[in-house]
Amino acid sequence: MSGMQTDSNMTFETAMARLEQILATLEAGDLPLEEALKLCAEGNKLVSFCSTLLDQADARLEMLLAGEDGTTEVVPAESLLGKGEGA
Questions:
Q1: Which residues pair with 64 in a beta bridge?
Q2: Using an 8 Å Cβ cutoff, are 4 and 22 in contact?
Q3: What percent of the chain has pLDDT over 70?
Q4: With contact defined as beta carbons under 8 Å apart, do 43 and 19 qualify?
């Protein structure tokens, strides 16, 4: 995969795979400066994309808790962990 996909079909996994490719290319160290800067910019966009997806997943995260009476209750993780904890 070369270049960043901009369609709505990009997944977290494809973005991470592209980030790994970019990192490997940059670590090789044999790129002209301009190309390295372009890859850094693409990498920053991918990091932002992945961060957004992780934030969305975190917002949907729910924990199942067994109540004292044996019932199961669905509780948003945020209410148990507190916002920003576990990050």
A1: 74
A2: no
A3: 70
A4: yes
